[in-house]
Each structure stands twice: as structure tokens, then as C-alpha cells.
Amino acid sequence: MARRLELHTDRLFPAEPTVRSIARELYAQVAACPIVSPHGHCDPAWFADNDPFSDPTSLLVRPDHYLTRMLYSQGVALTSLGISATGHDDELGPGTARAAWQVFAQHYDLFRGTPSRIWLDQTFIDLFGLDVVLDGETADHYFDVISDALTRDEYRPRSLFESFNIEVLATTESPLDDLDGHKRLGAEGWGNRVITTFRPDPVVNPAHDGFVENVAALGTLTHRDTGRWDDYLASLWERRQVFRSFGATATDHGHPAATTADLSAEKCQQLLTGALSGHLDDREADLFRGQVLTEMAAMSLEDGLVMQIHAGSRRDHNPLVHRLYGRDRGADIPGPTDYVESLRPLLNRFGNDSRLTVILFTLDESAYSRELAPLAGHYPCLLLGPPWWFFDSVEGIRRYRRAITETAGYANTAGFNDDTRAFLSIPARHDLARRVECGELAYLVSEHRLTLEDASELAEDCAHRLARRAYRLGVR
Amino acid sequence: MARRLELHTDRLFPAEPTVRSIARELYAQVAACPIVSPHGHCDPAWFADNDPFSDPTSLLVRPDHYLTRMLYSQGVALTSLGISATGHDDELGPGTARAAWQVFAQHYDLFRGTPSRIWLDQTFIDLFGLDVVLDGETADHYFDVISDALTRDEYRPRSLFESFNIEVLATTESPLDDLDGHKRLGAEGWGNRVITTFRPDPVVNPAHDGFVENVAALGTLTHRDTGRWDDYLASLWERRQVFRSFGATATDHGHPAATTADLSAEKCQQLLTGALSGHLDDREADLFRGQVLTEMAAMSLEDGLVMQIHAGSRRDHNPLVHRLYGRDRGADIPGPTDYVESLRPLLNRFGNDSRLTVILFTLDESAYSRELAPLAGHYPCLLLGPPWWFFDSVEGIRRYRRAITETAGYANTAGFNDDTRAFLSIPARHDLARRVECGELAYLVSEHRLTLEDASELAEDCAHRLARRAYRLGVR
Amino acid sequence: MARRLELHTDRLFPAEPTVRSIARELYAQVAACPIVSPHGHCDPAWFADNDPFSDPTSLLVRPDHYLTRMLYSQGVALTSLGISATGHDDELGPGTARAAWQVFAQHYDLFRGTPSRIWLDQTFIDLFGLDVVLDGETADHYFDVISDALTRDEYRPRSLFESFNIEVLATTESPLDDLDGHKRLGAEGWGNRVITTFRPDPVVNPAHDGFVENVAALGTLTHRDTGRWDDYLASLWERRQVFRSFGATATDHGHPAATTADLSAEKCQQLLTGALSGHLDDREADLFRGQVLTEMAAMSLEDGLVMQIHAGSRRDHNPLVHRLYGRDRGADIPGPTDYVESLRPLLNRFGNDSRLTVILFTLDESAYSRELAPLAGHYPCLLLGPPWWFFDSVEGIRRYRRAITETAGYANTAGFNDDTRAFLSIPARHDLARRVECGELAYLVSEHRLTLEDASELAEDCAHRLARRAYRLGVR
Fold first, then answer.
1. pLDDT of C224 over the 90 cut
2. Pairing of strands A313-314, A333-334
3. Which of A246, A267, A270, A373 fits A182 for a cystine, CB–CB 3.0-4.6 Å?
4. What are phi and psi of A424, to 5 degrees?
């Protein structure tokens, strides 16, 4: 028998009645604030084309590595979820999509206690009006209801964008991207609503798939000899300016470590030459990436782009999954990540310049109180990004605030990021974060560590103002 | 004046009334579930012989390194607790046992706020009907009551086993063990109730006391030349099969690091030869242990034994205590432990095979959210063992679930282990874990992160079903 | 409009009514206990001279690196806070002091959620009777009220000391210090109330500013050739004895790592010679510091001084700030800190001797449960110091007790340290710690993990008895 699915109005608030009632009051003030989404992975083509989304599986399951990871860990074959070695963007036939949805539904219990479950349930209810729990028996009902909705105009990408009350959403593109989606969006007056972010990893990380070809392609784009260090930098600078013209206010850097470097031009040329001939060892590749970070900081001082450093993920830990199914299939595993020594070269050059903003992200929670809060609580250029990836969750946000605030306060944090390619989950993700932030503020108020008046201001800061300020996004 | 000792019916539940009432409801469902104890260190001879336990000190104090460690840290001489350099298994005279008990009782206050105190108090009340707090004044009363009880038939090992409602209990033996206790248990129809576990550390760890002699003895047992790598492996395989015939469903590996390796046969032979001639340096010894782990995984794929890896303890950190009193005297200290890089070689070979089960344990809690939950939340072969050793406690279990669940869910965890040689504490240990797990589930329900219905299922999973499934133990 | 400032009687207690009422009851017992302050950085000259404090900025803002750090991180120039490159001890003109106070006040919101805010607000209310929140508009009012108070006799250092109910306060001095303040205090009968602590870093750390000159000065003081290892040690010993004569019961060692060493006299001489000729690399400097720690332990066994090891801070991470404004300006950043391997050489020699007391501090919270509690829960010589620096806070103390107690109990901890140079904040700091400790005990009582009677004893232990015992301070 189908189980009833419902959203409790007090969900994610602490149970203690005093705390809960304060949380409720704070949340009421921010629940309807516009969504500011300064970092994420949506496809700009969705909004440029404004075509209907194809089917529930392609929309909600296949691209969500939180889901496919967990299912895989319990022995579910990725192929049974519609993922194939030929690339995950192929259109699924309706039978395949429905069968994959059934597999997902039968294993939906695995997500009990995870944020994915919270985001999905809220999406099912708020967006599709579903009122029974997803399981093997209700799978077809879900598939039908969602499929039907997706054919309707109000479920097209731009309508959803409007109904989600998104004010601005940043996507993330490679310097090699032609930004076609953003061009078309600009032409249709959406240029300030969907903006790009400059993410140069494919031309910066010697270990990236196709690095050598990518750097060559960068040279072709900019008519420069990217085998020369000065031309390589000039090419990056020029692409940054193109990205700025498509609304970018930030760059983003996904590196295995937070290493930065400050080497001589001669040494830089040697590393670039080595990278392009495939001769760098791991340490040198790390140094090369680290040197580019420092160069990016120098450019940010010129062009005002905010730097984001997402450090510490060991990408594609599982070579079999990487070989068969490609990147971003859930096999990226965090490791211990140093910031104190790694960031020295960059900070020695630019750390005291408050015109620069560098936002740090971590997957190593032990660094929150030990390194990140002390660094952000001292250096004018540093802010801490919100809990990232695995930690964008109820407990994750609680641990973050409790480890960070006493040392770095709220002002040295950068507000919320949804960081998602799961477009439909964006309202639920922001809602979760707002509820948990209000709960944390209520906890402080209940212990008389903060006045209600201050908590009320900080709730709004957390909901959108910190993000606007950190990412230099104006108010519409 | 003696202080009253009592067990509150709501103990270990969160205080908040809504949470507490949910916890109570969940606990009521699992309080009487049979005990499944898939990993521990009881002596099979206790149950084979079924002799009465000798005295309170030998039973409850002397073998419990949680207790002796704390007492030693506050200046209590180990000899005053009946522990001597001549080996801790000597029988204590009644005067010595009583005097040692008095020392323990006088320092019982040291355990306030520790799980040992909770386990012991519950044992004193539930098993011996004691109703005053243990201290210097009540020590003799305790000694008399417990001594008297131990002479009675219902306090013999098998009777206790029955009254504890233990369904199955795994002990842990060396490949060199003759399994005499298990043989006798099998002959008396107890073979499915007390099973063995294959723990090859004495013949796998070049740093183990007597390693060279142990490997030779392994060869004698199996009539093989264990100086040859292929014969060494074949000997291990043969002993595994003997252990399987005595009920083993698992192996266990206590290593200082989680290193695994995948070397050529030639290199393996070199390492074995080096180990047997005492010529390995620390790195090579680590590599040798790591290679054996990978070989054990290969064998597990054949014979179905579940692998347990207990990584990260620096054994016998205190050489004086080790020299005078031997192993397991409380001087094992954890250190930082890497899993992401260490497990690569094993995972590269077998990580995607869902027929293999590898259960990971850690003493480095910073790895929970950073490495272990992401690994277990991806690799089909991996499960996370319960909080180990120092963390088998109220706060330890809470931290574990909060750090793990949002990434890895419940299904990637292996249920509870009591992991103890303190047989009498087994019911109290399982009770503590059940209470705390129910409290955690109630916390999720109270915030509407989980339905009561789901919590109820998960409470039973935590109480015994996850352990059965992880360790491949059938239902009687 | 000015916002009302008030102290709630239940502040810092958990909100849950049962827990709160227990916390209230426990706190009532310890609220008025005398303050024992065994480690801190007050200037003994304040009490020797007993001159009025000069102005609010010099007293409360300029020397407090918790404040200047946060302000600097948000772009406030240190010079605008009255800090100049010419040294921070210059007297500020009244206009400069007032202007700097205004800057501080305008940014006071940055401290919401931090312990600094809690300490300051309590000081403002309890000591100066202020009843509006500090901000840009109330800044002048604050400055006037505080300035006025400071001219009154009851705000002189000794009067405050009395009114704070401080029983004993330890300051921290270099071996090169002439202890003039302490001499004068002794002459006036204050010798048992303000005592010194022997902190030899300037003559022990080869990386310390002026190390070579410092070691030479040490030789001049003791009429010894401190270029010889035996004389160097003898000089340290002699200075320790002088410090003892001024009340010292402890030494203190602020090292970047917890490294200890046990080298031959020949090797020690080589390292000393290298250090004095500026030829040690980082590893050798670490070894040198580590060897001195072991020597200090040997001396402690002779003279009974308690050793404090404050390990893990990377001092002066920001070279610009260091060059312009000197040490202790907020640019000290913690890093990962090993204890298990680092302490081996010292522990191998003295770890089992319960006549020795070594108190360990950390800025790496991941070591609490992994290394520090297991070490302190085993070695007779070890105690854990209270949460240090960034962690001397509500959440910091909660994390500490929850990570430590289950393994090491209360008896292996050293009570509270205020560790401050902010003399006026001492009552508020002890009050915060007492409230939070009582809250933690109440939490245990509410879950029936501790009896109220035991909690009551432990509350008093935490308030002052553990500190007295750890630091060998008698009761007046």
C-alpha cells in the first residue's frame, strides 16, 4: 500500500520548542527571498533553447551523481539507470527511461536520512503535486505524473526559473566553450539572469583529459602561441574578458590540492613546456596548477573576478567506472587537504589586498576550525565558501557554522551555493539551507548568544545577501 | 554512606520530550531483539568448558584494558590490579583478587562520563542485583555478591549466553590456533552459536611478536614450505577453509595502516623472504601486510568470507608497559589514517565486485565524512563498520551517524559490533548502542527528516539486521 | 536608536528546560568560586605599579588579537586601531584612542556569534554598567564611561584583581626577563597571588626573533658559556630556579610541532652550535626544540615544575603584517599536529613517571579523540589542557568535552585556563567556561549518564579544583 508523502511545515527545525519557535519566526522572514545562485552546473542551453525536459529519468536521476553513486554502492548497475559507455547525454527511449525509473524507485529507501531524499521529496510535492512515497509500486504513477507535467509550458526551463524566483544563476564553462547558450540568452534579455563562470581546469590541469589539445585549442581561439608562458597567460586573460562580457563575476578552480606557487617566468615556461610534452610528474603538475592559481589572483586584481578554489577531491578514484562511464559518476573521493602551507605563495603576494576576493571550499571538515576559519578570520582577501558537496546537508551546515562562526564570524563566509546540475532541486536546496541556517541562529538566540534582532539580520544575510556581496552581484 | 545505584528507564535518550518519546517508542521495538555479535574477543574455551568464572577481578577488571588504562593513567600500579609480568591469565588468590577489587572500587569515580561506567553499572544491576554505587566502602559487598553469584549454575558461561539472548557470537583466532574450543563446541551442538573468525595478523605482520616462528608453524600445520610465496598463500587458504568449517564467516585484519598493494609474484617473494630474514624496513613491512590484504580479498571472492580491516592503531606505544605486562594493556594509540590512497590497489582489483564485502573500521574520526562515507557510498564491495573501540560510546555513535548517514545512508553500514573480551558486558553494550541509535533516529523523526515508519525499520536494522546481512549470518 | 544591552541569567545554558534547570543548579554552586588562573599573559607590571589603565582602546582593543584579527580580515587598517609599526605599547593620544574606539565600535557587529562578543558584552555590563549595545552611535558614550571609570581607584589593577575574586594568576615570562614586576609584587606581599611561568621559547626556538642574541644574553645572566650544551642546560636550570623563587609552578613551551627528541650529548652540541651559527634547517630546528622539551621534562622531575606544551601554531603566517606590526597580530594559523609519534622520545623516557605532569594543548581538534584522549587516558604523566585559543568558546568547550571525556574522563584534564592578556575579560572568560561546563554536565545528567551528585562534584572540579591540582597550586 502506498505510503503518504507530505512536507511538514516545521521540517529541519530543531525539535526543542523554544528553539523551534524562534527558527520558525526567522524562517518566515527569508522563506520567500529571491534565490541567488552564484555557483552551479546547470546547462545554459536549457534556458537558451527553452525546450521541454525530456523525461523523469534523464532529468532527475541520470545526471545526479549523488543518486547514481549510492545506487551503485549497493550493487545497482549503472546501465540499468540508463547510463551507458557511449555518453550519458543520449536520449533515452521511453521504455528505457521508465525501466530505469523503476530501478531507482525500488531503491529509494537507500536515501533515508540523506539530503537527496529531502530535496527530491520536496520537489515531488511542491513541483509535481505527488502525495505518495516513491517506491517500486508507485514508480509508474510518478513516471506518468512527471512525464505529463514536463510536456506543459509551465515546466519549460524559463517558466520554472521564474516560478522558482531565481534572480540570478551562474553556470560554469570552460575557456574553450563558445558560450553559445549565453550569447543567445543575452540576445533575449536573459543575460543578467543566467551568467557564466570562468572555469579553466581543462587548460590548467595537466592531468585533465585532453589537456594538451585543450591548450592548443585555447591558442587557436585567441590566435596565440599557448606553448609560450606569456601567450598562455594572455590567452587566459582574453578569455576571462569574454566571459566577463557574458556576465561572469567569478572564476572557479577545481584542484586536487590547494597548492599555490610563485615561481620565476623561466620556471613557469619550463613547467608549461613539460606539461605540454606530458613530462610533468605529480609534484610538478601540482606546482603548475598552483602557479596558475597565483596568476589568476593577479588577473582578478585587474578585472575584478572573484576566485573560487574547490580543493581536495581525488577525481575518478575508480578507474573502471571512469573508463566505462566517464567523469562525474560518483567516484570522486575527498582526501586530507592542507591550506595553511599551500596558500602561502598566493597569500604572500595578494593576501592583504582587500580588493581581491578568494572563496575557499573544502571537503576536509577537519580544516574548518583548524585552518580555514583562522585564515579567513585574518586575511582580507579570503572568504569561506558554504559547505560543499557531501556537506551541503542538515548536519553538514550545522557542523560548518559551529566550527566556523566563533573564529570567523558570519561576514567572512560567502553565503549559500547550490552547486548543482539538478535544476529542479534548486528551490529545495535553498530551502534546506535557509531552514538549517535559521535553526542554527535560533539555537544561538535560545542560549542568549545572539539577540533576535541580530539573528533576523543574519538570517537574511545567509539567505542571499552574503552571496550577493561575495560574488559582487548587484541587486536587480 | 552508600549512594543508591539505579538504571533509569529513559537512560541515554535525548532529554527533549518529543525526541525522547519517539526514542522510547523505537527502543521498545528492539530492546528484546536477539543479540548478534559478529566480532569480538571472548575465549571459546569459556563456553566449551562451561566452568564457573573464577572471581570478580579476573572476570571484570584484569582483562578490560578500558579499565586498566584509565587507572594506570592516574598512577595506579598495574600490579595492584592483579596484573603481573608473568602473564595476566594466572589465577589470582582470593586475597589478591579482593585487594585488587578494592583498588578498582576506590578509583571507580574516574569512569564518570565514560561508557565503561555505563556498561559496568548496568551489569552490576541487571546481572547481580546490586543497588549501591561501587566505591571503597562498598567494594567488599560487591566482591561478596559477585563471587557468590559466580558459584551458581546460572552464572556459568552457557547459561549467561542463553540468558543474554545471544543468537550468535564470533570469537577471533589466529591461523595457528588449534580451534580446540570450537571443536568441542561443535561436538556439543553449539557450533552455530559460537563461531570463529580468521585473524591472520600473527603470520601476516612482520612486526608481530614471533612472526618468523609463526610463519614456520603455519607451514608445519599445513605441511607446506611457507618460505615460498605460493605455499604461504596456499597455507593461508587452507587454514581459512578449516576456519570456515568452524563457522567462520569473516576474516579480521588489525593493521597499523590501511595500506593495500598489488605487486608482482616476484616482488611478493622478495618481501616474504625479507620478512622471514628480518630485513624489511617499515615501508616494506607495510607493503607486505598490504599485499596480503589484497590476497585475502581475492580469497574472499572464492570462499565468501567477509573481510574486516581494523586500521590505524599504533600498538604498544609504551615500551615499558609492553615489556613488563605484554600486549593489550591500554597503550595502543590511534594515529591519522589514510584510506583513499591506501585502499586503491585492492579497490582497483576488486572494488566493483558486489560479491565481495570489506568492512572498514577507523580510529580516526576525521576520516568518517571525508573518506569513509564517500568510499562506502560508492564502492559496491565496501561497508563501514560501527564506531570502534574508543568510539563505541554515546557520543561516538552520535558523531558516527551524523558524519556518515548523509553520504552513505544506513545500508552501507555494518550494524553493531561489541568487539569485547568482557563477556558480561555484552548485553549492556548492545543495549547502549540500541538506545543511542534509537535516539538518533528519533532526532531525525523529530525534525521530519525521516518518517516514524522508516525509523522503526531502521531501528531494527541497526539492532541486528545490518549485522546479519554484513556478516552473512543466517537467521536461526 | 541605541539597542538595549543585557545579560540573561540563563545565558549559555542549553535551551531544553530539563537540561537548563540542571545547569542552573550546578552553576549556582560554582558561580562564586574563586578564580584560579594558572596560565595567561597579563603584564606583572600592572599589578606591581598599580597605575590606572590608560584608555579604553589601549586596554580593550589594541592588545586583543582576537579583535584586531577579525577587523583586519574585513579590511580595517590596523593603523586605524591605533596600532603602529613603531610598537603597540606607545601611549595613544586621547584623540587617537577615541577615533580608534569609533572604528572598533562601527565594526562590532562582526563579532556576533563569537566568544569575544560574549566576553566584551559581559565586561561592559558587569564592570562598567553599560546598558546599550556598542555601535557607531554609542561609541562615544562607551569611551566616556569607560575612560571615566578607569580614573577611579576601584578600577586600578589590584582593586580589579580583588573584585574579580582572583586567588592566583600566573603570568608568562622569558628566561631573560629580570622579573622586576614579580620582585616588587613579592616585596608587597603579592608574591603568592601573581606568580610567574617559565617560558623559554626565546632561547629555545632557533626561529625566534633574536635567538642567537637571546642565548648569549642567557649566558651573560648566568655567567656561563651557553654555546656549550652542558652550560646551556645549566643556565636553563638556574633560571628555572629563579622563576621558582617567584612563585612559578610551571613552564610553558609554544612550539610549531609537538616534536620531542632524545639524542646523544654530542648530537645535542652539534645542534646547538648549528643553531647559534644560523645553520639549522627546519628539520634540525624542530629536533633542537624537541630535545630541549625532553631536557625540560628531566628538569621537571627534579624541580617539580609542571610542563605545558602549546603545539601546532604556525606563527606569523603573514609576513607583511609581521614586518609592519610585529608578533601576535592575529596572523598565527594552526596546522595539523601529530602527538603520537612526536611525543614518543619524551614519553619513552618519562611517560610512566607519575611525579611528572605534562599538560598538552592543541589547535587541531581532530587530535582530541584520535590522539590526545587516548594518550592522556594511558600515560601517568599526561594531562590535557583546556580548549585553547580559537576553541576557548561555547562550541569549543562542548566539542572538547564530548571528544575527550568518554576516553580520558575528567581527571585527565587540567581545568580551565583563560590564557589571556585581556585582564578585564578574565571574569567573563571563567564565567563562560563555568556555564558551558555546567551545561555539559547537565546534558549528561539529563540522559542519566551521570548522577546529579557526581555532576555537582565535577562542576566544582572544572571550576577550580582540576586547575589547582594540575598546576600544583595550594589552597590559600
1. yes
2. antiparallel
3. A246
4. -65, -20
Count CA atoms closer than 13 A to A371's CA, side-chain side.
Answer: 22
**Residue ranges of the domains in chain A?**
52-152, 157-470
> How many C-alpha atoms does A229 have within 13 Å on its Cβ side?
17
* Cross-chain CB nearest to C447 (options B14, B110, B319): B14
- 393-452 in chain C: CB under 8 A from chain B: 402-403, 405-412, 443-444, 446-451
Q: What's the burial of C9, exposed, middle or buried (CB within 10 Å: 0-12/13-18/19+)?
A: exposed
Identify the CA nearest to B398 among candidates B120, B37, B116, B23. B23
Q: Is there a contact between C15 and A443 if contact means CB atoms under 8 Å apart? A: yes
For A280, what's the count of Cα atoms within 13 Å in the CB-facing half-sphere? Answer: 24
Quick one: which of C126, C108, C248 has its CA closest to C192?
A: C248
Beta strands in C262-420 (DSSP E): 306-311, 313-314, 333-334, 358-362, 382-384
Q: pLDDT at residue C1 above 80?
A: no
State how far residue B171 is from chain C, nearest Cα, in angstroms.
25
Is B28 exposed, middle or buried, given 0-12, 13-18 or 19+ CB atoms closer than 10 A?
Answer: exposed
B417, three cell numbers = 559490533
Instruction: Find out whether C385 and C357 touch, Cβ atoms under 8 Å.
Output: no
Cell of B193: 552459536
Element (H, E) at C42: none
C53-154 CATH choice from 1.10.860.10, 1.10.2020.10, 3.90.1310.10, 2.60.40.1120: 1.10.2020.10
- Give the list of residues 6+ apart from residue C431 with CB closer than 8 angstroms, or none: C31, C122
d(CA A61, CA A68): 7
Closest among C103, C102, C104 to C140, alpha carbons compared: C102
Which CATH fold topology does B157-470 show?
Answer: TIM Barrel (3.20.20)
3-state secondary structure of C472: coil
Task: Give the model confidence (pLDDT) of B294-349 as tens digits.
Answer: 999 999 999 999 999 999 999 889 999 999 988 777 789 999 999 999 999 999 99
Q: Is C117 on the interface with B (CB under 8 A)?
A: no
Is the torsion defined by CA of B53, B56, B62, B67 positive or negative? positive
The distance of A224 to chain C (nearest Cα, Å) reads 37
Cα–Cα dist C468/B69, whole Å: 24
Provide CATH code, domain A52-152.
1.10.2020.10
Could you tell me which of C54, C35, C45, C57 has the C-alpha nearest to residue C161? Answer: C35
In this structure, which CATH number among 1.10.2020.10, 3.90.1150.10, 3.90.1170.50, 3.30.1660.10 belongs to the domain B55-152? 1.10.2020.10
pLDDT of residue C92: 87
Q: Do B443 and A15 touch (CB under 8 A)?
A: yes
Residues 6+ apart with CB under 8 A from B224: B231, B232, B234, B235, B238
Residue C132 cell numbers, joined: 546599550
Q: What sign does the CA torsion over B268, B274, B275, B280 have?
A: negative
Question: Per residue in A120-175, pLDDT tens?
Answer: 999 999 999 999 999 999 999 999 999 999 999 999 999 999 999 999 999 999 99
Residue B399 with chain C: CB contacts under 8 Å:
402
pTM over 0.95: yes
Among A395, A397, A398, A446, the strongest candidate for a mutation testing the B interface, having the largest count of B CBs within 10 A, is: A395
Q: Which residues contact B122 (CB under 8 A, 6 or more apart)?
A: B7, B427, B428, B431, B432
- The dihedrals phi and psi of B218, each to the nearest 5 degrees, come to -60, -40
Closest Cβ–Cβ partner in A344, A374, A450 for C113? A450
Judged by CB atoms closer than 8 Å, whether chains meet at C336 and A338 is answered as yes
CA B474 to chain centre: 20
